[in-house]
Amino acid sequence: MEAADAQIKSTPAVPASQPDKPAADASGPLVDLLQAHLLPCNLDVDRVTPEDAEALAAALEAASWRGAPALKQVLPAAAAVRLLEALAQLLKAQPTLVEVEPASEDVTVTVFGDTHGQLHDVLHALRTVGVPGPRRHFIFNGDFVDRGAWGLEVLAVLAAWKLAAPGAVTLLRGNHESATCTAMYGFRAELVAKYGAGMPGVYRAAKRAFAALPLAARVARVALVLHGGLFRRPPEARGGLHRRKRRRPPPGTPLALGSLADLRAASKGGIDPSGIGATLVATDVMWSDPVAEPGLRTNDARGVGLVFGPDATQAFLAENALRLVLRSHEGPDARWRREDLPGMAAGFTVDHVTPAGRLCTVFSAPDYPQFQADDEDRYNNLGAVAVLRGPTWDNPEWLQFAAVLPRPPSAAFYAFDDVPDSDEEIEVGGQRGSDASGLSGGSALSTGSLAESDGPTRHLSK
Ligand SMILES: [Mn+2]
Hints:
Elements: H1 29-37, H2 50-64, H3 71-74, H4 77-92, E1 97-100, E2 108-112, H5 119-129, E3 136-140, H6 151-164, E4 169-171, H7 179-184, H8 187-195, H9 199-212, E5 216-219, E6 223-226, H10 260-265, H11 280-287, E7 289-290, E8 296-298, E9 306-308, H12 310-319, E10 324-327, E11 348-354, E12 357-362, E13 383-389, E14 397-401
Parallel strand pairs: 1-5, 2-3, 3-4, 6-10, 7-9, 10-12
Antiparallel strand pairs: 2-13, 5-6, 8-9, 11-12, 13-14
């Protein structure tokens, strides 16, 4: 397929007046049939082709206009489970730190930031940039689900592409790919609304896939892509019988920056990375944020992860022979009224410029968040993707895009008035950290028991 390398143009809207005819570029008898009748999309998960991935995307898009219960007509619970289990199997074979080695200099590596269930924007961006293939690698940098209404659909499309083109697609873990976040910010409730009695199996399969997601990708050995940011050096492992357990650093121990070797050796974090024990590196990677001020400190605004200054970025780049850190995680809400770093209206920011290289943020959910109280102004942010090219691979080209509007009508799957705009550490039902290693269904988590806590204030909200 042909690459469209031009700047992504804004907003070819899906017409609300023609809900059964979304503006899909995909065509062909199978797609027509799926769109007309919402037939089950019987993917053979052992042999997913690019055509299958495109057909599934078109079918999910068509179903999105018919309300939440229509999803299971095109992707029944059993099929969703098969798809997610196949994804989990594939991801389990991948290391914590994936090496993306472009075979030649005409390969592009396109990096998506947070997509947060905004199916129509993801499909628009994919159709504009082109689909994965030998010369077009895609990295999706986490936060596929939660907040937006079509998290399962986004996850299913990414899973289908990963299965269709495993060598051309890298999926990385964001903080929302966890039991606690999905119980709080909508994905779990979305599955209840869409799958009813079939929900527990789909949720379990999704969490297995989340726990298997790699944490980072190094592109051409010079660019590191990860969701949140830099991470601390884990405490030395104990010897003997408890070798796998890590000591907790004594209180007051200064934080030391972790290395690529630490990242390579780290656990992917389990179902619910808690920041405790072996999940420390994973939690930092998924939750940390850059700041303008020098230093390396705990992230008190989020209550989890680190904040790190340009000196930390400089040291990390220099010590690991890197020239670019590309991260996501902060949308327009997180950057609202921040004075030290740029806002996210353009879908990307350059946060640290150092002699060793840069740290940039890419955010791919335009007009985010999808659900917002009526009395609040929308941020009207663009989304962007970063395109890395040889021979340097360290100077992203930014492709920006506006939201595909109007979106199909949908209820929100989380209490957007009651939870913080920006992600913070949240205790759910007192279960935080207790499920870090297992693959249990996590159904003990309830969305209704958010602990009032010692936690951070929502000072980043507007
Ligand atoms: Mn995030």
